[in-house]
Structure formats: C-alpha cells, structure tokens
Amino acid sequence: MRQFGRLAAAVAVAVLGLTGVVVTATPAAAASAPSAYPWEVHTTADVGTTADNSLGAVSCVPGGYCTAVGHTNAGKVDQTLAELWNGTGWTIVPSPDTNTVQPQSLYGVSCTSVTFCVAVGSSQSVAGPTDTLAELWNGTVWSIVPSPDKGTGGFSELNGVSCLSTTWCTAVGDYFNGTVSQTLAEAWNGTTWSVVSSSSPSTTVTSVFTSVSCLSPAGCTAVGYSAANSGYQNLAQEWNGTSWAPLSIPETGPDDDDLLEAVSCGSPTSCTAVGSSSPDGSAYANLVEQWDNGIWSIISTPPPSSATNDGELLGVSCTGVWACTTVGDTPDDTPIQTESLAVEPGYWEAASDGGIFSFGSSVFYGSMGGSPLAAPIVGFAPTPDRRGYWEVASDGGIFAFGDATFYGSMGGKSLNEPIVAITSTPDGRGYWEVASDGGIFAFGDATFYDSMGGKPLNEPIVAITSTPDGRGYWEVASDGGIFAFGDAQFYGSMGGTPLNEPIVGITTSVDGRGYWMVASDGGIFAFGDATFYGSMGGTPLNKPIVGITGTIDSGGYWMVASDGGIFAFGDAQFYGSMGGSPLARPIVQMG
Q: Cys-Cys crosslink for 360: which of 306, 417, 441, 575, Cβ 3.0 to 4.6 Å?
C-alpha cells in the first residue's frame, strides 16, 4: 500500500465505537480508575485460519447495522471480502469478483440504509494495471456496476466513498499520470459513475485520496497521504461544493511515515480520521486523529492484541461524534488477521437543580445549575451526536444546551400529572416528554404514537425510551409494566411480578429488539435480546439508583445513584462519578 495508493498492501479498517470483546466491570472495579484507553478490541470473522484477511472500510447506519469490506487471500490471489455486523457479531456475506485469477479488493463502503450500500476498490481483469471497481448492495446481494478509469498509464483505483442517498455518492482514490499517482474523484447519480475534477498539491509528487466523508453535496472531507520528501505525510482536503482546499493536520513526528486511510464526519464540526504511523518504515502503529471545530488533534489508542503489536487502521464510520466503528489488521503477523477497536463516549449525570456533570469524553455544554427553576429537573437526554443535551423539568420546561435545539415544551401549560422523563428522536430534531400518568407530548419531528394518558394504571410511569428508528417508544411504570407504542415491540415486563424495589429507569438495546429495566436497589431485568451483565441487586447502596443508560454496542450498561455513584457492567467502562462528592441536589438521570 506504499505505492500507487493501496496497490501493494494488505488493507485494513478501523472501527470507532461499536463492536467488541465484552469486558465486565464488577461493582468493585467500577470504583477504580478509568481505563488508560477508551478503545476495546473486538472479534471479526475471517476466511479460514491460514488465509490473510483484511477489512478495508466500514459503514454503519443507526440501529446497529454495519457493513465492512476488504479482501481475503487463501494462498492464490486477493478476492473481495464483505462482512455484516447485526448488533451482536460479524458474519461474512458473499461479494462478487471480476475474475478469480487476478487480484480484487474493496477499499471503501458507504451505506445509507440496510438496503443500499456502495463499495469501491480496484480489480485486474488481466495482468497489469488496475481498474476501478464499484459494487452495489441492495439488502440481499452485492453486484458490480461499471466505473470509469482515468490517466494514460492505468493504475486507477477508488479508495473511499460517501453516499448521501441512492442517487448521490462521491468516491475518491488515485490514478497514475505517467509519473506519479494523483488524486481521483468520481460521482454517482443513481445510474452511472463519472469522473469529476479533483486537485493534487503537485503533478510531480504522489498524492492519494484514501477516504471521503460528506454531510452534504457542498460539504465533504477527504484524507490520504502525499510523498513530497523521503517519507509519507498526512493529506486532508475539504470540498465546499466547488473546489477542494487543503486542511492543516498534525504528524506524529517529523521523520515518521503517517498515512491516513479513512475519515468519517459525525457532524459538520467533527470528523475522525484513522490510519497508521511508522517511525522506521517497517513497524506500524494505529493512528487516530479527530477534527473538532476546525482543529485536528491526535488521539491515543492502545496497541492491538497481536503477536507483533503492529496495527493498521484503514476505515472508520461515525453515526455521531462518538458513535463510530473501526476495523483493521495486523500487517506483520503471520497470517495477517483482522482487528477491530471501539471507544465509549463517556456519560453525563444530571441533578434536580439542573447541574450537569460530565465524565470521559462527554463534554460540558452548560446547565441550569445555579439558575432559578420553576420546577425541578427530572429527566435528561443527549443529542445523537453527543454535542449537546436537553434537561426537562417536572412542569415540562425544556432547557437545551450545545447543539440541542429547543422545539417547544409543556412549560407554563396545564398538566394532569408532572413530567417524569424525556427521550429524543434518532436525528435529534425532536423529543418526547412523558408524564407520570403516561401522557406523551411530542415536539419537533417526534411523532405521537398514542400513550397511556387517560388510561388506568396500576402504578405511575417513571421513564421512556424510543426505538432506534424513532417510530415508536416504550413507557415503563414503577411496577415494571411496559407499554409499547408505534413500532416498539413488547418483549416482556415485570408487571404483576413482586419487586423488592420499584423500577426507576429503562434503556433499549441498539437494535431495539430488547430493553433493560433497573430498580432503585440496582436490580436489572433484561428482556428481548438485551443481555444481563450483572446488577447491584442485593448489594448495599449508599443511595438508591435513579437511572440507566446502555453502551453504544449494547454490550453493557451504566446505572447511576442519586448521590452520583456510577456502577458499570459488561463492556461499560468507569470514567468517574460524583459519588462521594458534595452535591447541591441529588442526581436524577444520566445519559
């Protein structure tokens, strides 16, 4: 991969934030110091135990669906490789090749839904130069679609792709101009691919685009590398709808070889790029850089669990600022094996006076702490990109911070019963408030799908959570009764079952096919595909549990007590808490 883009290399991918080996945190461990790294290694699928397997890119859509692509080599030639993540594990799905006697590989993939993905790469139909390769996923099978080449000497390839719809995609890569590799860009209009103008720093210096991420037709970020001197340097450019402009991005060292292989933008002001770094040109280390409000910075990662401690990250997909997935390989191991990393964003605690306490990589965007309130805060919900959050008071008043937008509230309006909780839509453009009588109040693009308001309840409603697609929600009562609306499915409840303590919170699994309820004594009740990872039930608590939230891969969960104590289970990591610290008012929720 050190010449003509990826022509001579085993391709890898990086995944930030979704998959992983489960790490259980006991209550005792939950009180320990945070992990040195926010990343975890996750198990991927390989073709056989002796073949080289390499994943080149990954794309995820909300709801826990991811597709990763790359190549496999069973001792003959590279052939395309595609894997599917269903929320619990990776499986291989068939992908076509132009032939079985010449190398084929997929380097980039972009999905807009579970039924539309585009993968790009390179192929050789005869011995010699490579051609661009593009494949289309329709939810059932992959198929090859024609894509053009550029240049006079061949060696055209597509390394990355970003799709906004079934009729708009941008792919980037490189071609050989007769002297060196130059950047290449192509556009998909729903029917055909065509070459569009792209820029290179120089026509005599190797410049390669490896990946692109677009949030709009006038907003794309591409990364790659250039070889202006004796080594390789990071390359990043921004597309404004008319032209590409260079971006300043740091190097690990003045003499290091740094190669960015993938980028994904979770918001207009936040992107994550991944790749590899080598101080001597032989040993490789994982490289992660994050762009935040115009500034790129290097993010630390742990070494991979491989024999040589080598690692390459060559793809990343983000559905939010921190909801990202990465995959990759271990280039100097024999045989080469895939690797996957994950990061958790941390969490917030919200107090009844509106005070917000942030831990891990979750950022403080402001709070109502110290401000007069007509009624106490009772609920908290982060935006999907985790660059903001809402607080809701018992009178229905809404307070928005960061990129959270105010879409209306019940503040100042007559309520039959007080508001007890809030949950947002998956796109962050709306939210629901729920009252203790089960009444639902929808704002923004949140849709009303019915409620328990005006209907008999054995016990009051205490919490709400929405389905991953935002087309439904669950209400839970203090006796554990579940009420499902819209496309939310009923997977069981504790209603009618004796409880030691009342239910106080609910959170759903990433695919929406299950949920956890937590009681004030820390007891956990798991339904559907939600897995029980442990609880505080039967363990003495200084203060009662008041809320719960799950990890972004559903491999664990946190619960929070009213004194701010955090208890982590499964792959949930402990990043600190307010437990043992003075609080003006008790904690009421976390997110």
A: 575
